[in-house]
């Protein structure tokens, strides 16, 4: 499925072979564009492959929730769409089992209640849970959990399997995928770009940067100061539990990044947070993993007797206004972005790919693109050089 060399000329080059990049490349190929997808390393080796695979919908009402709901709908039909290009219906691991958001203490419960009311007003399905409901869905939570709501639209997927399936369908549409082909230089070439990669030099009218946290260094090659900073997530995976939660549990109303307890489908539990920023450091932080384990035990005391089998860290790109960047660079013809999704890239990938491809091809998008535009006011805040 993968190639070792790049064509000299294509309509579009997508840099980044995570799920967002795969969806962008696929949607462009569906619209008849010749596409090259390259990555500095292996396919889905970044945030896609080290995350939880969450397709979350429990966002604050506004552009992020709009994109998430649109993407959630696209996930439901994605396997059937891909099957039209493949000789089988791929298993994307889509499990629509919902998620629970819990609050501990009066202040957190009030925040959760306010958020849930705003989400319902925006048309999102949110269920208030009784103590008995919560005990059935997520047994063993701490006694100080004072409120809980459920998002029935939340789902999870197998992110690596999904990425491979989308890339395979893109290849069937004529796309070329070249992993282990880092980009060394980006130069303007008329109304497009010339891209030097380890697999060859490519001329293109459309260069799409979809490399998550690594998009900012790529933009630097094009002399663009992209306001994107690296965020760092940590993950612990436990041994099998005798009675794991039936669905993902988020701790709501905390000042820090939310704690997430997610079933893996094998009886184990994935414990995650996305709260640290340490530049482009990718090594796992043992102190952070210890704090993560302690926080998990406080939320679910029974985990004190459960062994953690492995830990992992990941990087993702964050913007000043916490919204992704999707669209054309206003100052550099031929340069496009689909990045800055934070830890939500997997869930938002199908809608992102569709929106990006609609904008590139001049089609009328099904979502208002303005809130995600690279030139929006929310991106005016420049990040300190130390964060880069």
UniProtKB/TrEMBL annotation:
InterPro entries documented for this protein: FAD-dep_OxRdtase, FAD/NAD-bd_sf
Gene3D superfamilies named among the record's database cross-references: D-Amino Acid Oxidase, subunit A, domain 2, FAD/NAD(P)-binding domain
UniProtKB keywords: Oxidoreductase
SUPFAM superfamilies: FAD-linked reductases, C-terminal domain, FAD/NAD(P)-binding domain
One Gene Ontology MF term: oxidoreductase activity
Keyword check for Oxidoreductase: yes
Residues annotated as domain FAD dependent oxidoreductase: 11-359
Chain positions covered by the region annotation Disordered: 367-388
Any Gene Ontology CC annotation: cytoplasm
TM ranges: none
Protein name as annotated: FAD-dependent oxidoreductase
Taxonomic path: Bacteria, Bacillati, Actinomycetota, Actinomycetes, Micromonosporales
